[in-house]
Structure formats: structure tokens, C-alpha cells
């Protein structure tokens, strides 16, 4: 089974913020941790705190294209954002784009319509788009409905930052409602951090099973968000591989890697 981590922040500059680890995850650290956890490939998502995050991720992917691919960041407030997105696929190893809509300041481009010209470009060019948008699922629904060819990935299952235990899944009915839109996918990244109980996080089985029942195994991707994990990387892998009894081997292979490869056209 090919294990593809759908989200890891790597960086060489800047100081990490919030709940992320302070020691940088650079190229050498990433390769070592992948080997220890049994991860074959990683989608690099540059963090905001590294001013050269996109460039560093591309550098890693260029050095080891069999291991790394990039879902880059694009500032929608830039005047040339639409032009840059139209040329997105010209960048070697950059296969998708991510927008963060998880703070009042980061929400402004969405509220001011600055993202509106970008959705049809991503739709036309078949660029997968990940959105970190807790509390914004009605907006995600509207975007996905207006652009049925746009493949939208809802990051972190739309769990609010810092939410743990039952509070982490209070929004679950709204998330499950998005499953009726076939172009919406969900990213289950670092979900062990949402549990009060230790590995293997038995409390997460019920909400995860509901998510898989709604979206199907073909529209869920696994990821770690390694820099903020509070448990070992290997446990993040093992949780899905061995402790979700409702997932058969075929479905597990899709969730743990094949879905993300298909979304990014990463052969």
C-alpha cells in the first residue's frame, strides 16, 4: 500500500507559530521521519511563517520528485493573483493550491470577492484547491455549487482550531451535508489531536465512520499535519491502517494515498 501524506508543512526560514513545533521540518528531517513512520510520499504545504515557503517546497520536490509534491499558497489579495493562478501548472511540481480562511483577517478576501475570479480558473485548469475554512461551510457549499468542476478539499474536516472531544465535531451535520456535492472532498489530517483519549483514539471511530459513510472512501484523503502532531508520526499512520475496522483494504489504499495522487495528477 502506497502511503501518501496529504499535508505537511516544511520550512527553512521564519519562526513557526501557534501550536506547531518550533524546530523546523526541513528536507533532512522530513526524509528521516517518513522512513521511521513508513510514509512513501508527502504533499508539501508551505506554511505562512516562511517567506520563501513555496520556493523551499519546490526545491525539495525538485530534488526528490518521487517523494515530494507541492500544494502551494497564493495570496488572493495580490493584484496578479488571477494571472499567477492561470500559470500555476507551469511551476514544476506544484500540483494544487491552498487558501486559508480561518481567521477574520484571512476571511477578508473571501468576503470582499477577491477569490471569486480564482475559482473558475482553478476549475478550468483542473487545479485541486484545499481550503482551511472552519465555520465557513455555507460558503464552501456555495462555491462548490457554482463551480461543479472545481475539486475542493475541506482541510482538517473543518474542525475549529483548538477544538477537542465532542466540541471538535459539533459541525458534523453541516460537513456531512456537503457530501451531496460530488466535487467536495475532505482531508482527515492529524485527527488524533481531536481526541481526549490516547492512541488508538477509540472516541474518533464514530465520527470518522459517519464521514466515510457520507463521502465514501473515494473522497477522503489522509494526512498528518506533522508539525502540530502531539503523538508520534507512526501512530498517525497506524491509526488509519489498523484501527478503523469499517475500512476494507481496497478503501484504505484509496484513502491513504491513491485519492491524493489522483486529485493532484501525481503519477
From TrEMBL:
SUPFAM superfamilies: Metallo-dependent hydrolases
Species the sequence originates in: Pigmentiphaga humi
GO biological process, alphabetically ordered: secondary metabolic process
This protein's name: Amidohydrolase
One term of GO molecular function: hydrolase activity
Residues annotated as domain Amidohydrolase-related: 19-259
An annotated GO cellular component: cytoplasm
Membrane-spanning intervals of the chain: none
InterPro entries attached to this UniProt entry: ACMSD, Amidohydro-rel, Metal_Hydrolase
Protein's UniProt keywords contain Cytoplasm: no
Keyword annotations: Hydrolase, Lyase
Amino acid at each position: 500500500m502506497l502511503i501518501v501524506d496529504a499535508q505537511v508543512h516544511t520550512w527553512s526560514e521564519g519562526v513557526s507559530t501557534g501550536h506547531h513545533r518550533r524546530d523546523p521540518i526541513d528536507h533532512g528531517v522530513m526524509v528521516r521521519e517518513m522512513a521511521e513512520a513508513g510514509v512513501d510520499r508527502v504533499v508539501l504545504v508551505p506554511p505562512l511563517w516562511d517567506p520563501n515557503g513555496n520556493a523551499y517546497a519546490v526545491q525539495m520536490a525538485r530534488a526528490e520528485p518521487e517523494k515530494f509534491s507541492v500544494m502551494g499558497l497564493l495570496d488572493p489579495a495580490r493584484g496578479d493573483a488571477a494571472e499567477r493562478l492561470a500559470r500555476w501548472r507551469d511551476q514544476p511540481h506544484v500540483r494544487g493550491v491552498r487558501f486559508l480562511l480561518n481567521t477574520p483577517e484571512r476571511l477578508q478576501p473571501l468576503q470582499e470577492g477577491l477569490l471569486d475570479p480564482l475559482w473558475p480558473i482553478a476549475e478550468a485548469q483542473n487545479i485541486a484547491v484545499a481550503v482551511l475554512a472552519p465555520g465557513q461551510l455555507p460558503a464552501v457549499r456555495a462555491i462548490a455549487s457554482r463551480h461543479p468542476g472545481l475539486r475542493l478539499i475541506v482541510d482538517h474536516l473543518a474542525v475549529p482550531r483548538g477544538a477537542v472531544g465532542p466540541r471538535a465535531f459539533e459541525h458534523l451535520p453541516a460537513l456531512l451535508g456537503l457530501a451531496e456535492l460530488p466535487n467536495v472532498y475532505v482531508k482527515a489530517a492529524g485527527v488524533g489531536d481531536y481526541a481526549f483519549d490516547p492512541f488508538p483514539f477509540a472516541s474518533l471511530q464514530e465520527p470518522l465512520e459517519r464521514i466515510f459513510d457520507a463521502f465514501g472512501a473515494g473522497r477522503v484523503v489522509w494526512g498528518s499535519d506533522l508539525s502540530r502532531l502531539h503523538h508520534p508520526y507512526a501512530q498517525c499512520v497506524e491509526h488509519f491502517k489498523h484501527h478503523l475496522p469499517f475500512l476494507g483494504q481496497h478503501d484504505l489504499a484509496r484513502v491513504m494515498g491513491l485519492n491524493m495522487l489522483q486529485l493532484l495528477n501525481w503519477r
